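It is time I had a proper look at our fold encoding. Can you supply me with one protein entry, sequence and fold together? It will help me judge whether the discrete encoding reads sensibly. Leave the record below and I will have a look:
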Amino acid sequence: MRLKLEEIEVGGFKAFSEIKKLRLNSPVVVIVGPIGTGKTTILEAIEYALYGTLYSVKYRKELKSEDLINDFTDRIKIKLALVDSSGRRYVVYRSRSRDSAEALLEVDGKIVEKSWSKVDAKMRNILGIDLDGFVRQVALRSREIEDIIYGTDMQRSEALDRLLGIETLESIFRGIPLKLVEDKLEMLESELDFLKARLANEPSVEEIERELEEKKKKLLVLEEEIDRKKKALIEYEHELEKLKGKEKEYESLKEQEIRLRAEIKQIKQRLKKLESFTPTEPADILFEKAKSSIINGLKETMLYKDAEEVEKIEFSRDTIDSALQVLNAKIKRLEASLEDLNSELLEVNYQLASERNKYNLLRRKLAEVEAELYTLEKNYNTLRGLVEKYGSRENVRKRISLLEVEIEKLEKISEINKCVYNLGRSVISTYLKESSATCPVCDTELNEQQIKKIEDKVNLIKKEDVFLKREKLVKNLNELKRVYVKLSELEERMLRKNELELEKKSLENEFDEVSNNIEELEELVEEVNFK
């Protein structure tokens, strides 16, 4: 958001003991005056009103907040007004004593924030820049300007580094443990070499793509084949249901065939005797016997109308020829019925062959499932061993998270120790060379006793073996990660194992059912052939 300064009122702040008001709404504002009249103080008052502190207090530690209060007053009072491009007016009030602080933010005359910290956060959000960025990019301090214009090469370089944020990068760089970086680079190089060696034995991307295309084509063919098999299986199941419904009908027809064969055989034998030998019984009695046998056969085959016709035939010398013709015709009807029974028997044999094919298919499929289950059983034993040693996958995940937190903590400790160690060595080195040294934080002179404490601290850090602790934890972490991946793979295979066990049970039930059907059909066929 673009904001324009309108006016500022400041009192009790550094050089200003009384309240001064300054209009800042001109296109260009130039503040002119001798040294010590408060030119820099006005800029710092603007900075203090916007952010509630100064860069020299928060970052440079050159002053404390209480040092900003004028010696002849007991309270800072600052009011800063700003206007944005849409005409909205912002007014910031700041008031601070040595033991209390108050702040207020108004937008178009309406109070929006009342506490010091909330006004700070709101102004940072409105400005879109923090205090560090403000002093680097908006309000350059006179110290940096003097160092750039009049300073030595070293001072000019340091001033530019501060303005551009390079000193922060250098501080971060100095704080990075070089040993960790070197170890990380070495590990990455080892992984890279391993991957290169592995890729050298692998086919090219083009070959993999060609193989993938071939696999996709084969997969499509197999999917089509599976669809055809599924459709055929559904047809076989429907056909099996129909065959089961005809089982009783088959048994009835089988019994009828047996009886009809016997009756036809008896009738043929009787007719043959009638043709070859002189009857020992009267012709009318023989005729009645033949007639009775034919009627029974016709009724067995449910040819009731033909049976009624035979029952109406009367034996006499005048009608014997026509009666015999009728009996011969009915015998042919019985033979035709026998042929029908033979056709039914052929159909049963076809059903038997179908059931045997299904039996063989189920047996092969069952063998494949059992073979895969045998392999998965080994995976189950491996999974059980890993769980007994490391715990469940969830427990391993929790242990990984704890180790990562612990490693991160050790890395931070290592970084802090590195910075403290370097600073301590620098201070000790300076003291040994120049017999004096200043604190790198507060810039105060250090005595011999303080130097001794710093030296003890440096030696203590040197003895601490944080790096070895971290290496041990990293080794454990990598092992647990490999175990976690293995557990995930094995648990997925156990899901497959459960599916296969259910499929095996279903196949065994179906296999038993088909086996029983085959036994029944084979018994029926053997019985019919025997008779």
Observations:
- The longest strand covers residues 75-84.
